[in-house]
Amino acid sequence: xxxxxxxxxxxxxxxxxxxxxxxxxxxxxxxxxxxxxxxxxxxxxxxxxxxxxxxxxxxxxxxxxxxxxxxxxxxxxxxxxxxxxxxxxxxxxxxxxxxxxxxxxxxxxxxxxxxxxxxxxxxxxxxxxxxxxxxxxxxxxxxxxxxxxxxxxxxxxxxxxxxxxxxxxxxxxx
Length: 174
Fold this sequence. Notes:
The protein is an alpha+beta fold. It is built from 5 helices and 4 strands.
């Protein structure tokens, strides 16, 4: 009867002709991301998903000085949503989630403290245009207490512009 082969997943085993396993001291190569076993010509990564995760981790570390674990800690602290508009990531048509941005202050070129994780809209349209905390506070004060309301003593609703009347395009003469 053969002995049980439990707990030996990290070492390769071979069964010779006699039926008793022999153990070689050759460790199984593992994926650097998920720890899965590498087969054939795989050198570092188990598959395309692991390669993408490691590429993103390397880029975040190089660009922002934050590890992927620290990024995840910020993301979980924010409740897995944008820090400003509180919107969770949308699912794109191809089934992948929208990529959120790690926001940081642009004090000296790209250098500056990391502030949080934002959706693409808030990062480019809201925070991207406000370069200082004073401007952001001024915008918040403006939206909270508009000067028109205090000057007139009442809220005035703007009617908006009437829609444009579209004329058909003229054909260009040849």
